[in-house]
Amino acid sequence: MKMTIKEKILSQLLAAKGEPVSGQKLADELNISRTMIWKYLKGLEEEGYVIEAVKKKGYVLQSIPDVVSKERISPYLTTSHLGQNIMYYPICDSTQNIAAEKAREGAPHGTLVITEEQTAGRGRLERSWDSTANKGVWMSVIIRPEISPHLAPQFTLVSAVAITKAIEDITGCVAEIKWPNDLLMNGKKVTGILTELQAEMDRVQSIIIGIGVNVNQEVEAFDVSIQSLATSLKIETGSEVNRPELVAKILYYLEKYSNIYIESGFEPIKLLWESYSCTIGKRIRASLLKETLEGVAIGITNEGVLQLQLDDGEIRGIYSADIHLVNKS
Amino acid sequence: MKMTIKEKILSQLLAAKGEPVSGQKLADELNISRTMIWKYLKGLEEEGYVIEAVKKKGYVLQSIPDVVSKERISPYLTTSHLGQNIMYYPICDSTQNIAAEKAREGAPHGTLVITEEQTAGRGRLERSWDSTANKGVWMSVIIRPEISPHLAPQFTLVSAVAITKAIEDITGCVAEIKWPNDLLMNGKKVTGILTELQAEMDRVQSIIIGIGVNVNQEVEAFDVSIQSLATSLKIETGSEVNRPELVAKILYYLEKYSNIYIESGFEPIKLLWESYSCTIGKRIRASLLKETLEGVAIGITNEGVLQLQLDDGEIRGIYSADIHLVNKS
């Protein structure tokens, strides 16, 4: 990715790890005036970077803002496409809404829409999603695979595996996947995924993968009514998580697993998904639009459809439902 | 449908069939002043209606504009939902683009977006579509069925049957359906359908059915390069077609067949579709994204997938392709 001058200055300050960086050296290397260097540093300070000028030595980066801006994410990126175009909003209604609009307007494959705070975040079935400011990862990724729409639903499961792997890499802790689109830790929701599709009948135009991860919230950040249902990576692991690094890691695995799915089919992803699932092999109750079914979740098909074996032995394919684990009495 | 005052005045003028309608009577019935009546009549004249004031007798509707506005379509409507909300544009880039935006903003089930002329009409795979001013039907219908996305592709076929039936009712002539989305007369294209989907992975948000019908064009309206490929209802039947009536008839059959599909499955629609098809039973060449296949089209599945029997007997399911009829030498 081509870096802007601001990003180049920032990357030098970061690389110096607390040592001063000479203003003259920066000016020479970037072939701009020292006044321009000073202006860029002022710009960084406005974004929350704390930069100290040490006389006759140079500039020292004292602290970096806790934001998920392009400048903060880019240094961690190892992808070819995902996140190579970043649209950052300090606050917005919903990254999913913005991404859908940008997708229609032609935003390229891999575009990331990310924010600190959503005023109208939403989950599956238009349910609301609480997105505390600066404490989570609230993002939407636009991908444009050349596939038929009937291959699109599996991307919810591809995404679930990618996020689980990223969380495992960053925190050392493993989340469980609850079909179709939740990640749990200790039985509490830590991540939701909302995958939306824009398509012609025989061609995907774009898939928009919305991801909400509770990262650095304390227990008190959650309303009392949901404290038994929701948790954050910090609550579960005891450590603050570097959000830009987590974002980059999610994008890495999302790109990797998407490519595997498109090139080799769903089989390899399915194995990973099943290994992280807390649903398969368990007795569950599935609330569908028009009925409620109970039985054992015996697997998912290559179409991502949950296979539920009822007590009379019949196997039903579940395309859409809310799932609850049950203890048979 | 609730009529506006303008629509009420117009419907009285139309009902009078060339006889004068008293301005005082209109004012009394609608409980507004004669000055207001006069203002509404001026408004209608600005839209192209020719209204003569006959002294001491009243107003006579001399001619109606050849447009597909809400006022012109509504009197023909016999639907419960489709077309009950009409958004009319004398000119626009693409009804499909407008409908997609309105759908995202929450436009209700059945909303019709219709125009006289498109500056950037488009067909399948982003191909351009020529939309001559005031001579065709260029429209998009937003529907919001409560179904899973894997049931959505069939709506292209539902729409093809609906439009064929509407054309048959209005002109007495029968078009042939060429899989997946063209209607032909005498082997030339008279209608294109572009069906687009906005969906969560397990729920349709909206299906936008874009319909382009060549209606009253003369041969010269088509570029010489496509005169052997494209035709209009007028060219084929020799008669001018009442476009608002055709629109209302398309909406009627689209609503009827959509309801049958949602309630009873694809089987009954499939039978109709096959009876109008010029593809089934024929030898065809199918150009896919990465290969070209030749064989006999033996039917469609309940998923709307074309079944192609290759010469070695293998049957391939075709989700997306351009189809050409071939004569085996």
From TrEMBL, chains A, B:
Reactions that this protein is recorded to catalyse: biotin + L-lysyl-[protein] + ATP = N(6)-biotinyl-L-lysyl-[protein] + AMP + diphosphate + H(+)
InterPro entries assigned to the protein according to its UniProt record, in alphabetical order: aa-tRNA-synth_II/BPL/LPL (IPR045864), Bifunct_BirA (IPR030855), Biotin_CoA_COase_ligase (IPR004408), BPL_C (IPR003142), BPL_LPL_catalytic (IPR004143), HTH_11 (IPR013196), Transcriptional_repressor_C (IPR008988), WH-like_DNA-bd_sf (IPR036388)
Domain BPL/LPL catalytic: 71-262
Top-rank lineage group of the source organism: Bacteria
Key words, A-Z: ATP-binding, Biotin, DNA-binding, Ligase, Nucleotide-binding, Repressor, Transcription, Transcription regulation
GO cellular component: cytoplasm
EC assignment: 6.3.4.15
GO BP of this protein: protein lipoylation; regulation of DNA-templated transcription
Top EC group: ligase
Binding site for biotin: 118, 122-124, 189
A GO MF label: transferase activity
Pfam families per record: BPL_C, BPL_LplA_LipB, HTH_11
DNA-binding region residue numbers: 23-42
Gene3D superfamilies xrefs: 2.30.30.100, Bira Bifunctional Protein, Domain 2, Winged helix-like DNA-binding domain superfamily/Winged helix DNA-binding domain
NCBIfam families linked to this entry: birA_ligase
Similarity-based family: Belongs to the biotin--protein ligase family.
HAMAP family xref list: Bifunct_BirA
Summary of the function given for this chain in its UniProt record: Acts both as a biotin--[acetyl-CoA-carboxylase] ligase and a repressor.
Descriptive protein name: Bifunctional ligase/repressor BirA
Originating species: Psychrobacillus vulpis
Gene name as annotated: birA
